[in-house]
Amino acid sequence: MIILIGSQKGGPGKTTVAVNLAVEFARQGKDVCLVDADNQRSAARWHADREEQGRQPAIACVEKLGTINQTLHDLDGRYDIVIVDVAGKDSKEMRTGMTAADTLLVVVRPSQLDLDTLDHMTEVIDQAMDFNPELDVRGLITQAPSNPAITERTDAGEYLADYPRIRPLETVIHERKAYRDVIGEGLGVVEWSNQKAKAEIQSLAAELMA
Ligand SMILES: Nc1ncnc2c1ncn2[C@@H]1O[C@H](COP(=O)(O)OP(=O)(O)OP(=O)(O)O)[C@@H](O)[C@H]1O
Ligand SMILES: [Mg+2]
């Protein structure tokens, strides 16, 4: 199964979601390959830290730029789960990745600036679906305020209602320090002490497998 994590805006949390899902699936006993298709190399750097520190379970990591669909198909035959992290823009990696993926996870913060990118994203998705009509497109809200006093719309169904191509996930990833803390350690939040972050990633993984 190939899960591609994309956005057309930088910084909503694609890499954060990618590495945390990779750890959760690996802990479930799945063979996981993380594909870093962003020349910023954030996921690859996290992976190098994980390897250096000898963290278990081990996760495979491949770096590939440019046209990535054939690489993804090859990896799909060798791993249970392939998680692809691309750059926060309309890129060749994102477009070619979409033609191979089973699931596209569109990651957005609860901000108008992120929502504004979704019309263009919908066009790109439509083009990819000419080649890959089975692509399952899911919307994930990330960095939602964790302060209960802030009543921002974070229900993805309501938030993404204007974008029928993107099927909202019930899981919402909140803004939590744990997500920042684990990255430098080569860990995922499911290996960390914050139970709320751990529950979010486990719930996301379960929804994607349902
Ligand atoms: N849920 C979260 N809670 C707290 N901080 C977060 C969360 N998600 C991401 N961040 C922080 O926001 C910043 C951007 O996250 P990340 O690098 O995962 O985003 P990205 O979408 O991969 O960015 P890019 O488009 O540059 O690849 C990082 O500093 C990260 O630690
Ligand atoms: Mg990134």
Automatic annotation (TrEMBL):
Stored Pfam families = CbiA
The chain positions of domain CobQ/CobB/MinD/ParA nucleotide binding read 3-186
- What InterPro entries does UniProt report for this protein, alphabetically? CobQ/CobB/MinD/ParA_Nub-bd_dom, DNA_Partitioning_ATPase, P-loop_NTPase
Which top-level group of life is the source organism from?
Bacteria
Query: Which parts pass through the membrane?
Result: none
Which intervals of the chain form a coiled coil? none
Q: What is this protein called?
A: Cobyrinic acid ac-diamide synthase
Query: According to the entry, what is the taxonomic lineage of the organism?
Result: Bacteria, Bacillati, Actinomycetota, Actinomycetes, Micrococcales
